[in-house]
Q: What sequence folds into this?
């Protein structure tokens, strides 16, 4: 089914809109979400929240590019879950290229640095990039 047809289903408030959207973009949304949330049950719940978010957004929104619209909602919801789980805990320091930087630390050694969620190793250096904010 074409994007404009799926949007028409949403505008007419047809339950088939959710089924068609999940069939066409469910895999793409799962991929976006799983790159941010690594827990399968959290990712599946976030996908369901994404479908509900699209349902609530259309109407009034009438997106030009449905895939980008749906992925943006999925990404934002996944990032909200990261913030909810890790929460703002304390200020710490991280090393990047030999320069010490102030970062917000979360539980488990995660940090928000220049719009990225990163994992810090024991020396305070960045070891893994988790998500672009």
A:
């Amino acid at each position: 089914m074409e994007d404009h047809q799926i949007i028409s289903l949403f505008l007419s408030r047809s339950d088939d809109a959710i089924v068609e959207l999940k069939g066409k973009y469910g895999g793409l949304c799962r991929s976006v979400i799983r790159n941010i949330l690594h827990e399968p049950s959290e990712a599946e719940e976030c996908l369901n929240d994404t479908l509900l978010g699209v349902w609530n957004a259309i109407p009034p929104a009438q997106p030009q590019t449905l895939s980008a619209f749906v992925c943006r909602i999925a990404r934002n919801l996944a990032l909200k879950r990261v913030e909810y789980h890790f929460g703002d805990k304390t200020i710490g320091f991280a090393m990047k290229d030999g320069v010490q930087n102030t970062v917000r630390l979360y539980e488990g050694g995660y940090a928000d640095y220049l719009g990225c969620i990163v994992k810090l190793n024991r020396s305070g250096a960045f070891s893994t990039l988790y998500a672009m904010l």
